[in-house]
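[audit] Reproducing an earlier prediction to check determinism. Same input, same settings, fresh worker. If the tokens differ from the archived copy the diff job will pick it up downstream; this log only records the rerun itself.
[audit] input (150 residues):
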Amino acid sequence: MNPGKTPVFSLYSTSLWIRFLRFSLFANKKLQEILETLDLTAPQLYVMATIGYAGRLPFNEIGAKMMVTVSNLTGIVDRLEEKGLVVRERDTEDRRIVYVKLTAKGQKLYKTSIPTFENILSHLFEPLDKEEQKELGSLLKKLSAQPNTH
């Protein structure tokens, strides 16, 4: 903060949120280029990365990991399915459970795009040393784990 300047916000947490939002917008802008070449949206890539890392997952578990509602996830998965990148499979024991998994085409896209994606992310966090990156990760995890009380 500049000496002699009155802060715009009365709470420091608001300034933190602004900084976080600025970084998020900056990062999304950098990632948009790769997403356009892949013909994917950020949520679609997130679903593919989640499934690609974990294997097939139940629909509700993907939603919980992404912190989105099942109705929002349905649209994302529908579009991935239309592109031939994922399939839905019903559980043979409990038909209420629907799994989502990558198709061969989806696995190929996942395996070829994730290294490029990770390279971009690596450059985004390059100003922080490994210890600072770990600290940031821990802090963000702590913030994300808060109970939704408000």
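[audit] rerun output stored. Observation attached for the diff report: Strands lie at 57-58, 86-90, 98-102.
[audit] end
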